[in-house]
Amino acid sequence: MFPGVRPGLIVIIVAALVILVVGSASVGTVGAGERGVHLRFGAVTGTVLDEGLYFIAPFISRVAIMDVRIQKEEVRATASSSDLQTVASIVALNFHLEPDRAATVYQDVGTEYNSRLIAPALQESVKAGTAGYTAEELITKRPLVREEIKQLLADKLEPQGILVDDFNIVDFQFSSTFNAAIEAKVMAEQEALTAQNMLERIKFEAEQAVAEAKGKAQAITIEAAALKENPQVLQLRALETWDGVLPRVVTGDSIPFIQIQAMGP
Length: 265
Description:
This protein is an alpha+beta fold. The chain contains seven helices and eight strands.
């Protein structure tokens, strides 16, 4: 068949090729962050292979690789709030396959679990979680809404062998009418707060004026009482302001406004 080639050499070459093909079909590796699902004649045996080298029966068995690292799925979801406002959301889910259940996921869903399980669960959970809050509460109670939707996702996916690591609401978007209403409400609240602050300032100033008037009235009362008990205080006040010049004209029986006691010799 091959001139100049011995039949024995041909047999050796063919045997080597067969061994190479069989060997490559019976040995493989499972990479880091992956699990291998053992199949026999295309059927799932239930055996899950860990990371590293594996050996299988060639042409009878094969291994399907499943990624068990944390993955991210981000979708847009449209829902309605409890006050019937349309809410467009962008949400992101971090998840991973439960390594020990990789064979079950492969058998029940295959490798298309993102489109078959994750995306529908996200849409349904966002709608259910959003419906329990008003549009305004979706903003003011965002952390609570986030945790509720995360729990809804966990309840749906974990029985399927998919574990929820984290869930985030990337964005909430409302209709232009609702945004205008919110802006008007905020402006009204700010104006009311400004008016209240002004009222408090006026009230404080009025209280200060009243306190000052009361203080002056009390001082006058005390001074009047002192003058009543000691009339000479009035003369003392007059002396303090007198310029030292006596009146030049005295009419009638009037007397000087200051009584000066004569000093003895």
